[in-house]
Design the sequence.
């Protein structure tokens, strides 16, 4: 009887030990889990919190951007030359396309490829097979009809984005001058490139936090959009259109390689027209040769030929080696200088200064230039704007080829007087003639409409500048080399230029035909320069093919500007100058 109670007591004593072991195990495990959670929390919150912050921001932060249209470009009268129109871009989310297996729906996928002018395989290749990519453009600047069609297809993973596209209402008439933008709306040619910063605004941006229901609860950052500026050019679209029409007609009819024309306001130095042919359609540049993008009026240089003769005569007048009454004996019409010949087409015998310009005498200007230091001639040419940029500031503008060397042979000095040994651009030539037309004041040219013209710098005596206008008027009259430059109802003056194009080792058989002139002579308003490059056929002289273009452009421009006809007024410019040389 005494043994049983001992056994039950022993069992009773064993239970607490088992319970204690289990309890201890549970406590250790709970403590370990708690410590692990605490350590993990400490690691995430203190040591490396960026990951959680990033994950949270991805779920709650959103960014909204306001698109800003590019500024508009106008002519001097407010006619639009470049505008931006809203369009859309089509893009794909490769992850969604792959997860939803969008290509498996062949009807929709093939229709999407067809409207984008791609094969289904090309479209699939464009999207790719990398699910980590979340954005890829399929097509930019899509017209609204295509966008509406693609939206109706409802292809998974295909989305749309607002953007803008540049449109040029004048098309090829202003193509090289205005230039164009790329697919990202950044100017890459012409005015669009030169004033890209001015025409480009800054898009607005807002960073905010939203809750689980998509409601905005906090704005973290806000940046207001900056509106772009509009640009008003000095161009007169009416004159620009006339100039392009007449130039294009001449280039095509004479089989020329190219041509340029520039119209300048004499009083302000503003460019009223600047055209080139052949041109291109800036609204559809597909398959357009790159060389057509070039604004030849400012980039292409040429030897100006006889259009320099007025400057040579002015050099003699300014230096004092000749006066308005000087007579030069050009007999016998040829002159040998250092083993080379200077020739006139005929023996003009004795010529006054007006006769030298009227007959375009190489002998006459050569003898005038050889009677004075070459440094003076070079300096006057340079003061007239040759050998330097015109002030337009357009990308690609050339300063020409102009020599400042100290040693010149007599033959080089002689040929320099009639436009060989230097190269100019059409706008440089226009600037030089504008200087003569406004009484000897040289102003930089401007492509922007100016309310107040720059004061400029006097480089010629007023008497000499005005006298030269009458000499150039005689060149257009009977007996001159440019009778085809006459404008009905107006007194105009100008000078033809015909020069062989330089090749390696000398001169080839191609020509540059040019004409530069002023109108009306009684009160000069505009200067027009026409350059025809490499005309084909039997006609290649400036008086034959460039002068008629000048007449058409000048006549239409004077009428558009409401300039009173002055054909009945007599040549009295020199007397009006009153003998004041303006120095």
Sequence:
């Amino acid at each position: 009887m005494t043994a049983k109670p001992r056994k039950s007591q022993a069992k009773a004593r064993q239970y607490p030990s088992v319970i204690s072991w289990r309890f201890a195990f549970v406590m250790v495990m709970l403590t370990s889990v708690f410590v692990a959670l605490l350590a993990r929390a400490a690691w995430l919150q203190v040591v490396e919190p960026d990951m959680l912050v990033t994950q949270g921001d991805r779920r709650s932060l959103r960014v909204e951007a306001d698109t800003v249209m590019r500024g508009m470009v106008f002519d001097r009268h407010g006619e639009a030359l470049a505008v931006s129109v809203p369009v859309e871009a089509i893009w794909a989310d490769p992850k969604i396309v792959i997860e939803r297996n969008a290509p498996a729906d062949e009807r929709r996928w093939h229709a999407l490829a067809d409207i984008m002018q791609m094969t289904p395989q090309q479209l699939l290749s464009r999207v790719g097979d990398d699910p980590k990519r979340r954005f890829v453009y399929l097509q930019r600047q899509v017209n609204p009809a295509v966008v509406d069609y693609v939206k109706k297809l409802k292809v998974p993973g295909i989305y749309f984005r607002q953007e803008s596209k540049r449109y040029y209402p004048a098309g090829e008439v202003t193509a090289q001058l205005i230039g164009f933008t790329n697919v990202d709306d950044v100017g890459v040619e012409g005015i669009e490139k030169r004033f890209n910063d001015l025409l480009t605004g800054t898009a607005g941006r807002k960073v905010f936090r939203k809750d689980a229901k998509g409601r905005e609860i906090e704005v973290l950052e806000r940046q207001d959009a900056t509106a772009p500026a509009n640009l008003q050019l000095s161009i007169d679209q009416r004159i620009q259109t006339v100039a392009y029409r007449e130039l294009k007609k001449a280039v095509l009819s004479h089989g020329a390689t190219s041509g340029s024309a520039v119209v300048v306001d004499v009083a302000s130095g503003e460019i009223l027209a600047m055209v080139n042919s052949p041109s291109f359609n800036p609204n559809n540049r597909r398959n357009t040769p790159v060389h057509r993008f070039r604004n030849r009026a400012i980039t292409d240089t040429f030897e100006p030929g006889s259009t320099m003769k007025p400057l040579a005569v002015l050099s003699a007048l300014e230096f004092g080696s000749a006066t308005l009454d000087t007579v030069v004996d050009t007999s016998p019409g040829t002159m040998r200088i250092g083993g080379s010949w200077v020739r006139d087409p005929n023996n003009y015998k004795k010529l006054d200064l007006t006769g030298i310009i009227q007959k375009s005498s190489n002998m006459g200007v050569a003898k005038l230039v050889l009677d004075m230091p070459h440094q003076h001639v070079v300096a006057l040419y340079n003061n007239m704007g040759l050998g330097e940029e015109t002030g337009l500031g357009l990308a690609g503008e050339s300063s020409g080829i102009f020599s400042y060397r100290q040693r010149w042979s007599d033959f080089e000095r002689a040929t320099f007087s009639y436009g060989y040994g230097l190269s100019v651009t059409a706008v440089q030539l226009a600037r030089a003639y504008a200087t003569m037309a406004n009484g000897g004041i040289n102003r930089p040219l401007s492509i922007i409409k100016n309310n107040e013209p720059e004061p400029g710098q006097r480089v010629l005596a007023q008497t000499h500048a005005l006298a030269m206008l009458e000499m150039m008027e005689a060149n257009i009259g009977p007996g001159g080399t440019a009778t085809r430059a006459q404008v009905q109802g107006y007194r105009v003056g100008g000078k033809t230029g015909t020069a062989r194009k330089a090749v390696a080792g000398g001169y080839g058989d191609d020509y540059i035909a040019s004409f530069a002139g002023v109108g009306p002579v009684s009160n000069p308003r505009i200067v027009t320069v026409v350059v025809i490059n490499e005309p084909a056929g039997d006609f290649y002289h400036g008086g034959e093919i460039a002068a008629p273009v000048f007449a058409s452009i000048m006549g239409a421009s004077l009428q558009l500007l409401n300039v009173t006809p002055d054909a009945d007024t007599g040549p009295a410019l020199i007397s009006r100058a009153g003998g004041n040389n303006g120095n």
About this structure: The mean pLDDT is 88. The first strand starts at residue 61 and ends at 66. The radius of gyration is 39 Å.
